[in-house]
Write a structure and sequence with these properties.
Blueprint: H1 3-27, E1 31-35, H2 37-44, H3 60-65, E2 70-76, H4 84-101, E3 106-108, H5 112-120, E4 124-131, H6 140-148, E5 151-155, H7 168-173, H8 184-196, E6 199-201, H9 207-216, E7 222-223, H10 240-248, E8 252-255, H11 259-262, H12 266-276, H13 278-286, H14 291-301, H15 303-309, H16 313-327, E9 332-334, H17 355-363, H18 368-386
Parallel strand pairs: 1-2, 2-4, 3-4, 4-5, 5-6, 7-8, 8-9
Helix pairs in contact: 1-17, 2-4, 6-8, 13-14
Amino acid sequence: MKPVSLFIALLFTQLCIAQSYQRIHRDAILIDTHNDILTKAVDEGAMMDRDLSGKTHSDLGRWKKGGLDVQIFSVFCDGEKQNPFAYANRQIDTLEAVIRRNPGRIAMVSDSKSMLRAVKQHKIAAMAGVEGGHMIENDLDKLDSFYRRGVRYMTLTWNNSTEWASSAADEKNKPDLERKGLTDFGRQVVKRMNKLGMLVDLSHVGEQTFWDAMAASEKPPFASHSSVYALCKHQRNLKDEQIRAIAKRGGVVQINFYSGFLDNDYFAKRKAFKAKHAAEMDSLKKSGLSEEQYTSIIDDKYRDEVNRLRAPFSLLMEHLEYVIKLVGVDYVGIGSDFDGIDSPPSGMDDVTTYPLITKALLEKGYSKKDIYKILGGNFLRVLKANENH
């Protein structure tokens, strides 16, 4: 084939792929099971129905631009927050206020049927997920209350353990931890979640809690925002036997986008960056700024350097494909952690970049049917399996 003819053929192939991935992405139901914009809304006044480009990863306009159909909003606070149940309800109040202001753009949904109805109406279908069992304050009635307000999953722990479940962070970092796994009350929590139709989320939990929850749950579990331990050895990631167990029970692993959970070298690179700019950081610290504030200032000043620390996009795809190769295409999805992370992979700057995943999957030879499963179909199946009608 002549060089000119070869160039034209390659150009035509690329054009076909571009048209194909855009059409597939548009036609798929794209579900992201973890986004932390509500914390920014409550703590920083971010209004997600305005253009927040350059300030957050997410807003209503950019979700639509990125082809998102369903967002499960993380209801989050750390273990130090006073009155966490009340704070969690403030976040749900905020979400409901956004929905009231934008009835033609976003709708609160309670199950798979109302979710699909909202998607058909070209609205963002919104659900909530509580990220940390400490927010029920050891009270099953508060768990029931969350369900009534649209919460459809609960992460049994965040990094902090509760009185009834140990976290991955504590199981790894506290050798004198008195108790690992679920207590009898913890098993009651799981049973109540099953009865309500609330998904048991195993992200963040310790290994013993993971296996105890697997034994206690009668419904398919899932991990709302976790990546693969074999590729990045962080305690937040899932080991092969855990991934196999979730798949065997008909659950799904939603891959987290955080560079620190994708790239084994990320934290070492981040440490070297901080050491390089330690003098400036110390000066800002002495001026009275908090660690979050002075870190943000330094990151903004040296944005090009910070961007070079990010995990390559190829690693995100490796984590997705690792799960597929280990247990099959039916057991993986997307739980980005956007607006809860400070370092998404290169190219994935915000929610408008979801189509890059569809493009990469198509280029790797995945069928339209398989791409539909990965982008949202697998989670939708698990949601339906947990519902009680």
